[in-house]
Known about the structure:
By secondary structure, the protein is an alpha/beta fold. It folds into 2 domains: 16-199, 3-Layer(aba) Sandwich (Rossmann fold); 212-313, GMP Synthetase, Chain A, domain 3, CATH 3.30.300.10. 41% of the residues lie in helices and 18% in strands. The chain contains 11 helices and 10 strands. Bound molecules: xanthosine-5'-monophosphate. Xanthosine-5'-monophosphate binds next to helix 7.
Amino acid sequence: MDSNKRPENMERITTKELADAFIAEQVEAVRKQVGDKKVLLALSGGVDSSVVAALLIKAIGKQLVCVHVNHGLMRKGESEQVIEVFKGQLDANLIYVDATDRFLDLLAGVSEPEKKRKIIGGEFIKVFDEEASKLEGISFLAQGTIYPDILESDGVKAHHNVGGLPEDMQFELVEPVKLLFKDEVRVVGSALGLPDTMVYRQPFPGPGLGVRCTGAITRDRLHALREADAILREEFDKNGLAGKVWQYFIVVPDMKSVGVKDGKRYEGWSAIIRAVNTTDAMSATIEEIPYALLHKITARITSEVDGINRVLYDLTPKPVGTIEFE
Length: 326
Ligand code: XMP
C-alpha cells in the first residue's frame, strides 16, 4: 500500500472522539517506528509543526528534541508563545535559537522579494543544520507534512517555502499527520490540549513578516509593522472578526509621506490593512471591515506606533492581487 495515499474509507476527523482514536493509533505507530531513538523537529509555532510536536511529546516525551528558530520575522509574541506552551506547559525538550541578528544582517539592503525569500529559507536551513549537528544520537526527523502538501507537492506551498530541509540530512522521517487535511489537524491539536490561539491560527508565510515589510527590511520599520499588526489582531479579536476572517494583517511598504503630529511636520510610513476571505487560497475576496472599526484601528496605529502616520485599506481581491502583499 502507498503510505502517502489516504485510504478511501478513512473517516474525516471532525470530533474529539475521532481525534482521540487517531491520536491513540499514532502514538502507538510512532513508538513502534522510533523505539528508544531520538527525533528532531523544527517547531515553527505554526499549526502543523505544533500539532506534530504535541503528538510526539505524548508518544515519546523527551526523546523528541524540538528546535524553534526565531528568524526575527515572527509576529508579536509568537516565539514567546511557543516557549510558554511547549516548554512551560508540555515540558518539551526545546532548543530556542534567537537568530534575529543573523537574518536581519543578511537581509540588510536586499529589496527583491524572491531574493529575500531565498535568503530567509537558506539561512533557516543553515541555523537548523547547525543546531542538529550539535546534537548526538538523532535518528529521525519529524515533519508537519499534511495531506494537501502531498497532493500539491509542486503547488503553492512548494513554491513559497523556498528551500526545505537539506537533502543530505540522513534521517528517517516521522510524519504522523501526513494523511490529514488542515481542519482535521486542528481538531487533533485541540484534542491534544493545544490552545485555540495556536490551533486556529491564520495562515502565515514561512518568511514571516519579511514579506510584509516590503523592500529592504530595516529594524525600525519591521518593529513598526510588528506593533501595528498586533493592534490589528487585537481589534479583530475584540470585535469578533478574528474567527470569521481567513487572513488579516498589516503591510508596511518602504515609502514615507509627509504628515503632521503635535503641530509639527512628521514623515512616516503607511500601514496597509489587508483582510481577505478564501476557501483554498487560490482566489480571495476582501472582508468589508465596518468603517467605525477602521477608524478605531487607524487612530490606534497612528497614535501608538512610532513611525506610522497613515493607515490605508487594500481593496484588491485575488486575482489580481495575491493574498500576501510583497
Ligand atoms: P499568495 O500570497 O500567493 O498566498 O496569494 C497564498 C497563501 O499562501 C500563504 N503563503 C505562504 N505559506 N509559506 C507558506 O506556508 C510561504 O512562504 C508562504 N507565502 C505565502 C499566504 O499567506 C496565503 O495564505
